What we know:
Shape: elongated
Radius of gyration: 46 Å
Structural class: alpha+beta
Strand order of the largest sheet: 13-21-20-14
Number of helices: 13
Strand content: 25-35%
Oligomer: single chain
Number of strands: 28
Largest sheet: 4 strands, antiparallel
Amino acid sequence: MLKKFLKIFLITLAVLVVVGIGVFAYYYNKISKIANSQTICSGVTIDGIDVGGLSKQEAYDKVLEEVNSLNSKKITLTYEDHNDSVSLSELGLEVSGVDSAVEEAYALGKDGTTWERYQAISNGAGDGKNFNTTKSIAVESFEEYVDANAETLVKVAKDATLTRENGQFIISGGQKGMKIPVEENVEKINDRLNNDWDGKDLEVELTAIEADPEYSEEVLSKVKDVLGTYTTDYSTSSANRRANIANAASKIDGHVVFPGEELGLLELMVPFTIDNGYEVAQAYSAGEVVDSIGGGVCQVATTLYNAVLLSELEVVERHNHAMVVSYVPLSQDAAISEAGHQDFKFRNSSEYPVYVEAICQGTSLTFTIYGVEERPSTRKIEYISENVQTIPVGKDIITKDPNLAEGKQMITQGAHTGYRAKLWKVVYENGEQISKEEVNTSYYAPSARRVTVGTKKDEEETTEDSSTKKKDDSDNNKKKTVTTTEAPAVATTEAKKVVTTEAPVEVTEAPAVEETE
């Protein structure tokens, strides 16, 4: 009886053990499968996109597909009367952090023991969990958008203006503007894209701020000091040349040059035409003095050049004349040539605006540059012209004129001595020289005197009796041949001789362009 009971007990126990092992194995496998899942917990979203139950790769692909579709979404930007829709791709939308969001989503329920992981997952570790990517537009793209829509988005601030009348400065007040601050609005748009955005088309009202004028009345009121002034005389000039000087100077007078800006004279003066107020006067061209519309305007450039030097502003471009001029020392001239693209330009290298004043009074031209004097009163400057080399004039250039009586001659152009010169800037402090520097070097080509001589013979000298005429008929034919070839041959030979033997090295250095001297 006992043996039978023991047998039954052992069999029952064995069955229970086997069943227990089976149940344990079943639940253990179930728990392990859940705890060791290679997918993201259910209930997890990335940017609101359900990725629960997906592998990392599947989640990444799904999110990326949705992210790419955002480029076509429209954002409406508004400001006062401005209302414009543009795609996010046009604003350079970038989405970052997809990889990290997927990794964070996948990591839920993956920490701890098998049981802890099972518990976490079973208890809804992923329920309501959302991971965000980072969305942003490009600063450069938004800035381009603002520039392209400046007419409705930007109200440009107006600088105060400066004029001078009757020896007094007159300042007209500037005006504040409005502008769209780029970085501030980019941050505002990005904040909207990353918070409470459902991924659909959206609208953002842009923020605007006041824009102050760069140069206010206060700044311009400081412009009152004479930085440099220079005067040249044109009392020996013709009426037309005087008119050209006055006309060109009036086109420069009153210009305000702000810090860092350049002022070029050629664009202010041209075109050199009658319609633009110019007359015909003498000018230099290829080593000769010729009549040209606008002759004399180089004296305007020269006078301003010297005022700029005394103001110690930066000279950007300056050219000397082909031949020497009489109204300033060597190397202190500045030539202007429309055909030769020769200009005089200077840059305002000071920290304040400068005002350029031109006054023609009597037969003198004065340029004065006003600004804010920051140089110490103990500092003085001087410009010294140095004649490095005097180049002698060659022989007269002779031109034979068959219409001018033999024995008569006309000087059609006077001689011009050639020079090589330098201009030096000397600086004194408390009366003592502290520096000396070279400003420029200049070459002025020599130009020979041009003389026209007559070759026309008196008609009475050619009268002969008929018999002598017949006898010397063949001789007369020879003379005719000589007469026909003599004028061009002699003139050409003499001209070549003068130019080639007297100044052969200098010819190429003189610019063959017309200078309105």
